[in-house]
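#structure-requests
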Amino acid sequence: VSLDNISPHLPVAVMASEDQRFLLHHGFDFDAIQKAAKRNRRGGKRKLGASTISQQTAKNVFLWQGRSWLRKGLEAYFTFLIETLWGKQRIMEVYLNSIEMGDGIYGVEAVAEQHFGINAYNLTRADCALIAATLPNPRRYSSKTPSPYMRKRQRQIMHQMTFIPAFDMRR
């Protein structure tokens, strides 16, 4: 669906959850990359990622899943291209229509219908924060049957949304 037919709260929720500097960077958040590299060098169970919404869009639309230096290199190339040719509104629109938002559920319209019984435009601010909370692992976390942890993440994202500028939906 077009960005005009998506709740204006969803881009803000996704930026609050996934990429708070989306409107400021040109596809790569070098501060986040540096922090992730530093933390990952220290070790630990979980690796910290630093992919931006632009990088995730490039990967989801043009590449395959998995991790390799070849895929990461191609991801950088496609990220540069979409940042140069599309602009932030188009990147966000493609991202929201292509990401997995539940087990086998791709895109905002599908998750709005299947989990909330409404269309993407009518998602509330709270619905959008809950959807954004699932994005690190939408097969594990559900916006349809949220756990207490998901409700906590939803509240955190709603708080972070107050610090994200409104997303200009016009092209």
